[in-house]
Amino acid sequence: MTPLELDRWHLKRTLELAIQGQGSVEPNPMVGCVIARGAEIIGEGRHRKFGGPHAEVEALRLASTRAAGATMYVSLEPCCHEGKTPPCTKAIIAAGIRRVVAAMRDPFPQVAGGGLAELQAAGVEAAVGEMEAEARSLNAPYLKLVERGRPWVIAKWAMSLDGKIATRTGESQWISNERSRAIVHQLRGRVDAIVVGRETVLRDDPHLTARPPGPRTALRVVLDTNASLPVELQVVRTARESPVLVVVSQKASADRRSRLAAAGCEVFVCPGETHAQRLRELLDELGRRRLTNVLVEGGGRVLGSLLDIREIDEAHVFIAPKLLGGLGAPGPVAGEGLAKLGDSLKLDSPSIELLDGDVYVSGRVAK
Q: Could you tell me whether strands 293-298 and 152-160 are parallel, antiparallel, or unpaired per DSSP bridges?
């Protein structure tokens, strides 16, 4: 094995470790770390939860005194600032690590190359950039939040074979089967927010919670322009048990806003004149709140507006082997739509899986 092949082999392991933190570490990045002497791994670690020890510290603890003179591989540049935990760079230097190989720089403003520079100033050999594409893909939601100030948007819908999300009378429970719905609950359990439109809530009266619970409790976000959501609905009735954000326009009356607030909901007023403008303002607000992953479950107007403004990053689609028909039966994505096929959003290397008859298509949108 050449030195480069050895570096890539260890870096691949850091990515395998890092992904295990998905849903538990956000808004921090997922990070994995390996400490090795040649091909021998003497310590490894991962960032397990937000506020907990970083991957480098966990790996150093396992390697103990053998870390002196060894090489550290890490999926992201070590931090050099005091946050919820001490700087990893200081621990690396104190342990006597000879060389650090990072897959990519951390664009977080308080790091941004400073971690590698501090290591080099202390006499530690530092290299960066090998397997950067894989590392960026792993932490794409974190990178979008840091670089653009907006969360990663995951679109989800279930539809019939002929592209309907409900019958012509509005019946939609259940188009997909139990295995498909179990995956949706897994998604809900690892995201920071679940976004739906008012019509979806009126039609289905969902709880919008993960069952069983996952590592995160998502903020439930309902887009309700006029603040007219009935307080009898499940999502409002449970607002004191699990947080609810109702997004309204400036035109919503103060009395209606107060009624929802009295029921336990947080009301967020978006000044935008159009649905698309308000969605942009909502994404900016969720970014300010440091929410990393947002699951949008519909309906068609919401998903269509997100498509129109190019803010869908990932899609999870469940296609049931059923035909519903009906000119008036709704489809999953409305909005203004695209004029040319060449402008369509495409999934990059989508995954396709059969779930007891349902077809599950998922993937990230190619940029």
A: parallel
| Interatomic CA distance for residues 103 and 106, integer angstroms | 10
How far, CA to CA in Å, does 86 sit from each of 54, 63, 76?
9, 19, 16
Give the Å distances, CA to CA, from 244 to 236, 241, 266, 269.
7, 9, 6, 14
* Dist. CA 83–CA 36, nearest whole Å: 27
Question: For residue 75, which of 56, 98, 90 has the smallest C-alpha distance?
Answer: 56
H or E segment and range at residue 194: strand 193-197
Give this prediction's pTM: 0.92
Task: Please enumerate in sequence order all residues whose Cβ is within 8 A of that of 124, keeping only pairs 6 or more positions apart, or say none.
Answer: 92, 93, 97, 98, 99, 100
Q: How many CB atoms lie within 10 A of CB 174?
A: 12
Nearest residue to 241 (alpha-carbon basis) of 270, 208, 215, 199:
208
Percentage of the chain beyond pLDDT 90 is 78
pLDDT per residue as tens digits for the range 31-64: 999 999 999 999 999 999 998 999 999 999 999 9
What SS3 state is found at 84? coil
Q: Which amino acid is at 6?
A: L
User: Which candidate, 15, 85, 90, 19, places its Cα nearest to that of 50?
Assistant: 85
Residue type, 141: P
Catalytic residues: 56
Count CB-CB contacts under 10 A for residue 84: 10
Full strand arrangement of the beta sheet holding 99-102: 40-46, 32-37, 71-74, 99-102, 125-128
- In this predicted structure, the answer to whether residue 165 has a pLDDT above a threshold of 80 is yes
The sheet with strand 358-365 has its strands ordered as 266-270, 244-249, 219-223, 193-197, 293-298, 152-160, 314-320, 358-365, 347-355
Q: Name which of 223, 270, 257, 222 is nearest 243 in CA terms.
A: 222
Closest by alpha carbon to 254, among 269, 271, 272, 232? 269
Give the integer Cα–Cα distance in Å for 357 and 268: 41
Question: pLDDT at position 82, please?
Answer: 67
